[in-house]
Specification:
The chain is built from five helices and five strands, in the order ββαααβαβαβ. By secondary structure, the protein is an alpha+beta fold. It has a three-stranded antiparallel beta sheet. The termini are far apart.
Length: about 140
């Protein structure tokens, strides 16, 4: 359960060998969802993208003196995509939950080298430019 199909770093399908796994996934059973290593990008972030987001979050927190648990970071390939992401996230935030501004940051080139592009896990963000959307 949960292994990528095919067994490849670029896989976006996942093994659910029993019908009960499919039903559990659809019903939000944490035993099924926590076992998924990868999945369709619309529903699950690719593991290599998670690694880059975590790396940039840790570097950003170290530079700012923040705890990693206090910051959500998404690395994005262009400023335009980062601004669209910021707009979408701000439109989804619940006004009653308080204000959680989303920042768009141009990252140092050395933080971006080899970062997977959001649209294609097999792609790579240009080392000349990459951005992050960060929300405390």
């Amino acid at each position: 359960l949960g292994q990528p199909l095919p067994l490849d770093e670029h896989a976006v399908s996942v093994s659910m060998p029993l019908w009960e796994h499919v039903v559990g996934y659809e019903e939000g059973d944490p035993r099924v969802s926590s076992a998924l290593v990868c999945g369709y990008p619309r529903f699950k972030t690719h593991p290599s993208v998670d690694q880059v987001n975590d790396l940039v979050r840790d570097r950003l927190c170290a530079a700012r003196g923040q705890r990693a648990a206090d910051l959500l970071v998404r690395v994005l390939p262009t400023e335009a995509v980062a601004l669209r992401y910021k707009s979408f996230m701000e439109s989804c935030l619940d006004a009653d939950a308080g204000s959680f501004p989303v920042e768009v940051l141009k990252l140092p080139p050395e933080w971006c080298e080899g970062a997977p592009a959001a649209e294609a896990p097999q792609g790579a963000v240009s080392a000349r430019e990459c951005y992050a959307a960060a929300r405390a």
